[in-house]
Amino acid sequence: MKAKLSAVAAAGLLAGAAGVWLAAHPQPTGPSEPGAILTLVVGASLLGCGLGSWQSRPENRIGPIMVFTSFAWFAAQLTQSPTPWVYTIGTAVQSVWGVGLVYLLLAFPSGQLPGRIDRWLVGAAIVLTLGLELLAMLYGNKAGLRCPGCTDNLLQVVRDNHKAQAWLNLQRLLGIVAVLTVITVLVRRWLKASAPQRRAVAPVLVAGCATLAALAWTVLFDLLGDPLGALPAHVWFYTMATVPIAVMFVFLQRRLARGMVAGLVVELGGSSASAGLRGALARALGDASLELAFWFPVEKCYVDGDGRAVMLPDDDGRRRSTFVERDGQPVAVLIHDPVLEHNAELVRSVCAAASLALENERLQAELRARLVELQASRARLVGATDAERRRIERDLHDGTQQRLVSIAMSLGLLETKLPAQDTAVQPLVRETREALALALEELRELTHGINPPLLTERGLPAALDELCRRAALPTHLDMAVERRLPDEVESAAYFMTSEALTNAAKHSHGREVRVAASYEANNLTVEVADDGIGGASITGGSGLRGLADRVEALGGRFTVSSPPGRGTTLRAEIPCA
Amino acid sequence: MRVVVADDAVILREGLSRLLEEAGFEVVGLAADADALLELVERTIPDVAIIDIRMPPTHTDEGLRAAKVIRERWPSVGLLVLSQHVNARYALELLSAGSNGIGYLLKERVSDLDELSSAVNRVGQGGSILDPAVVGELVGRRRPADNPLEHLTDREREVLALMAEGRSNRAIGERLFVTEHTIEKHIKNILGTLGLPISSDNHRRVLAVITYLNSQ
Q: Is a pLDDT exceeding 50 seen at residue B116?
């Protein structure tokens, strides 16, 4: 590769030297062009910049295109030669550098012509610069139009200055149209581009469009016979000199961006939140739209900082993905603007610099997601327990309780069939019925404890009211909840109140209890306060731990305030919509 | 007396129907849910409808709601609502539905032929009955020391509970083995202490006592 490029460089310099030599010894009546030095500067900087780009990114065609353009540029100088065959070749290819310029502008920065119109335009440039030039040469000597005694054009078949002039005028006219079309395409592409894309092409686009516009202007003036003299007609020549400078500027900018990776490493030392990391990467890559997702090995998918699974963009879409690995394991994916693909080195070095921070972030994101999942699974467990309670209560009601009631009815019927004076069986039946009544009462208490029917049927206000009325200590209820809440929230509030009332009766030695329930801002608050001896603790092995678990499983907060001698207050806050 | 029975459990429906027939009532129809019950009542206009509180489709308080509808459309039909749970709130809602002939009993209570027969008769004749378990809960509730109910004697509490169950003065006397006259004196004392008006209408007396107990 290196040897090949060196050979190209040597050939280029040789061509340049020859061009300069020719330019320094022009034919007396040759076309007036700006100085040989400027010609050499433009050609050499195209060549140097092209070779640099070719070496650093062999897969990108921008380098070869610029080298080609520089050769074509130098080749135009062959028109200055007095030797007929050199002159003929020079004349034939004297405008071919325009193909290179058009190709460069349309394909920058990817090196690929993005659409069909671009390929058409490059094709048109070839036909105009080479095809029409050759046609004109069949009829005459271009330089000869101006100087009849100039060097011979070897391709001339028949001398016909009118036809030659006509072909050349056609070439110029179509050239203007083609140049304006290229400018239009470039401007439209600019308008549709994203911010990073614009940043990547701006200098080249401006220099290129200025050159093309100036060229169109010159050709137009040439057609009209240079009404303003020769000087304004050569503006394009100076703007052409800015094109390689613009390309170099863009490449330099990329090198500077790579220099920012060092800044990124320093920045990452201080930040840990994923927003900070994303921001730092976005700044280093110059792409504000950058998205970051982390690899979750268990789920085998990429997940963003908020725990949502991320769909990777299709490769033909408007976004691209770059994968970050560490020790052969996927860590993260950067979803970014496609333009960053043309600066793969920057992306690679940014990813390398950030891989430790990304791995760190990935672990944190995974932990967060696990916590969210854990919380959800706790809530599901509570929900499942509540559902199970309701099912058991239903089953007991519809099954055992009914069967026992039916047995009681049969016994009642049996009793009527016995003779009243039957002293052997009658007391036995009565005894059985009393035992059965006791069993039914116990079963009723049991099912009520499992799931109070009133809670399911009428909701929290009615159920808490009933609970307070049944309490062993005088209990005052302050109820400010009017609506139905989710089952598991109602259950948690109910059982918390129930347990608190039982505790107050058993342990507080208090005289009365106050229960307050309110719902506001999507939050249910239940507070049970007694005026007893206090000293209750959530860690004391009481039922309080279970209540706290239940409330916390629903994402709520459970607090116990129980200073000795000043009563006990239990408070639950449960979020619910 | 013509009676209809509504219960979604077939064993209870049939068992109750046999007991009722044994007690000498005429069972004119059976229903398995609230809609069938309303249709049945409309068709037969019974003296008493015995209704299970929990029926399909939601298995919550369909029976209670059906009872209220019947009271509104066919006020002459006595209502005896049966429940497997002690629920003072439902009892009160039912009694507040108005006028006479309303009862609320635990299901197992009606397995005793005498109790069943007395309950159906009383509801059919415009009386009101409340299950002793419900009344017990209302009377036995813990109240602050300054509440008037705390000033009643134990005997007066007993009388109050029997009043709340819907029993007549004579029945209370029989139950407590004292004369009707003594009961009348107790009742005067109780109503005076609680600040309630004296009423001879059974339903009105039950409702007033229950409402008072529930509000304290």
A: yes
